[in-house]
Design goal:
Blueprint lengths: L2 H10 L2 E3 L6 E3 L15 E4 L2 E4 H10 L6 E5 L14 E5 H19 L2
Antiparallel strand pairs: 1-2, 3-4, 5-6
Length: 112
């Protein structure tokens, strides 16, 4: 088995597929519940704690350039599915714009 196959198998062993949304939901450890970086999937790899969605992306698609980020298009931080409907390589600015748009939409849903 190749290293890529091993990494994918380790990740998928802790994934639950949401049939409604298509998200591959991480069921393992996360970055906690407090702060802006909270709620992201985490795992140990090569002696380091890493973000699972980033590992899955690089495992499937390759290197993430320095000025790019991975955006959860599906808005589910626990999703690790490396598919354009779920994770997308974007600029930091695009990611920030989408995050603000999602916040506004969430506020509109809550407001009467």
């Amino acid at each position: 088995m190749s290293r890529r196959d091993e990494i994918r198998a380790r990740i998928m062993a802790r994934v639950s597929i949401d049939e409604t949304t298509g998200c591959w939901v991480w069921t393992g450890p996360t970055s906690g519940t407090e702060g802006r970086g909270a709620g992201y999937p985490r795992m140990a790899l090569g002696g380091q704690t890493v973000a699972v969605h980033l590992v899955m992306w690089t495992n499937e698609h390759g290197y993430i350039p320095g000025k790019k980020e991975i955006d959860h298009v599906c808005r589910n931080r626990l999703c690790v599915r490396p598919h354009p409907d779920h994770l997308e390589l974007v600029t930091r600015k695009r990611n920030a714009i989408r995050r603000e748009q999602a916040k506004r939409m969430k506020c509109e849903e809550v407001s009467p």
